[in-house]
Amino acid sequence: MSKQQKILTLNLFLLTFVLGTSEFVIVGLLTEVSTDLNISISTAGALVSAFAISFAICTPVLTAIFSRFSKYPLMLSLIGVFIIGNIITAISSSFALLLISRIITAIVTGVLIALAMAVASETVSEEKRGTAISIVFMGFTIASVVGVPLGTIIGQWGGWQLAFWFTALLGIISLITSAATIPKGLKGFQSSLKQQLELLTNSRIIIAFSIPALSIGATYTVYTYLAPLLQEVLFIPNKYISLVFLLYGVVSVFSTLIGGRLANRNGISKLRYVFLIQAVILASIYVTFNSMATGLISISFIAFIIYIMNSTMQLYFIDLANKYFPTAKDLASSLTPVSINIGIALGSALGGVVTTHKELIDVSWFGAIVAIAASLLTFISYRLDRNQSIHV
Predict the structure, then answer these.
(1) What is the Cα–Cα distance from 206 to 384, expressed in whole angstroms?
(2) In this structure, are residues 389 and 239 in contact, taking their beta carbons and an 8 Å threshold?
(3) Which helix (H) or strand (E) holds 216?
(4) Whether the model pTM is above 0.70
(5) Angstrom distance (rounded) from CA 371 to CA 377
(6) Would you tell me which of 99, 147, 236, 346 could form a disulfide with 217, CB atoms 3.0–4.6 Å apart?
(7) C-alpha to C-alpha distance for 359 and 286, rounded to whole angstroms
(8) Using CA atoms, how far apart are residues 154 and 97, in angstroms rounded to an integer?
(9) d(C-alpha 362, C-alpha 381), whole Å
(10) d(CA 215, CA 306)
């Protein structure tokens, strides 16, 4: 990549880091939010589901609508709305206002992620796409490493609202860097909303779309309730919870790095087995959480495998769009994060049902079942690819 492309990729990395921090920091603050607003843990957990559902529903439609506009002014405007959404969250004193602010933030977050991925794929050479996209995706990983633990520390020290003043400040920094680095000549695609949304009716896209949703859903069945698990099952003191999230984030960096390499080597064929390994890891929590040492090892393995699929699935969607719907590439760029957020919504909702009607630790084997379903769909998608290549 040229120096200019590297600077742009670094800025897109910063943008996804900011977006990821804002989205995921609530996971480490569920206890504080529930206590402050006098609501149950499961109700507080619904904030995660609401964010993900809003993200998933609005992102495809708005991305398709906005795809006709130049990316530079569009992205700066959306970052401005993102900042406002986080400020509203920071001043929220009721669950209703908090919920509304998270929905606003979710809507612009989804479109911004899709645009960041589209910019990354459009501004680098074909052979560097996997690298650029993995770097942009790594913003979410680093958000887990630095943003979420730091936000958790800030929230536990100065109140959960202060954590969102922090994300608003990060948004302002991202706005400034984006204004300086995003190319002004990236035009949109002239295509009707109906033509673009036809992408979502393609059977290959539907199958592929379900894969990240199920994999992330499997993890978030557990991860949404990780803080309560640490507190009530492993009996880790509150002051060390942020350190566990830091451990999770550090290990997940390697997940993203491996995912970038996998994307350039027929990643779909490898993911079939990755998801089976994920199922074994999630199921093992039921046993390993009997002690702190083995429990922390299991958490590390969960982090190690969570992001391996990202770059592969992102390129897979773009390639399918190039093959069937070339004018819907921006929309295709949104499908991985949309699918992931549907998975987050399903996983956190499933975790909520499990924690309400069963023991907290039972989230482990429910997550494992969902991971097996992700593996089965990947086998099907891979087989369809092979059959198509044989008949071409």
Answers:
(1) 13
(2) no
(3) helix 203-223
(4) yes
(5) 10
(6) 346
(7) 11
(8) 21
(9) 30
(10) 8
Q: How many CB atoms within 10 Å of residue 354?
A: 21
Dihedrals phi, psi of 57, to nearest 5 degrees: -75, -45
CA–CA dist 351, 309 (Å, integer)? 22
282-318 residue pLDDT tens? 999 999 988 888 999 999 999 999 888 888 888 888 8
- Domains of the chain listed by start with CATH number: 3-391 (1.20.1250.20)
SS3 per-residue string spanning 32-70 = HHHHHHCCCHHHHHHHHHHHHHHHHHHHHHHHHHHCCCC
Give residues with Cβ within 8 angstroms of 5, minimum separation 6: 123, 124, 128, 132
Look up residue 92 and give its DSSP letter: -
What residues have CB less than 8 Å from 185, skipping those under 6 apart?
70
Two tokens at 177? 């860097």
CA–CA–CA angle 158, 161, 162 (5° rounding)? 50
Q: Is 65 left (phi over 0), alpha (psi -120 to 50) or beta?
A: alpha
Count of positions (residues) in the chain: 392
Question: In the block, which residue shows the tokens 């009716």?
Answer: 201
CB 1 within 8 A of CB 132: yes
Residues 89 and 38 sit within 8 Å (Cβ to Cβ) = no
Do 268 and 311 touch, CB atoms closer than 8 A? no
Per the CB < 8 A criterion, the answer to whether 167 and 86 are in contact is yes
DSSP code for 361 = G
Q: Roughly how many angstroms between the first and final C-alpha of the chain, as a whole number?
A: 33
Q: Which residues contact 234 (CB under 8 A, 6 or more apart)?
A: 289, 292, 295, 296
CA atoms of 102 and 36, how far apart (whole Å): 17
- Greatest CA separation for the chain: 62
Condensed to tens digits (0 to 9), the pLDDT of residues 243-292 reads 888 788 788 878 877 887 777 666 788 888 999 999 999 999 999 988 88
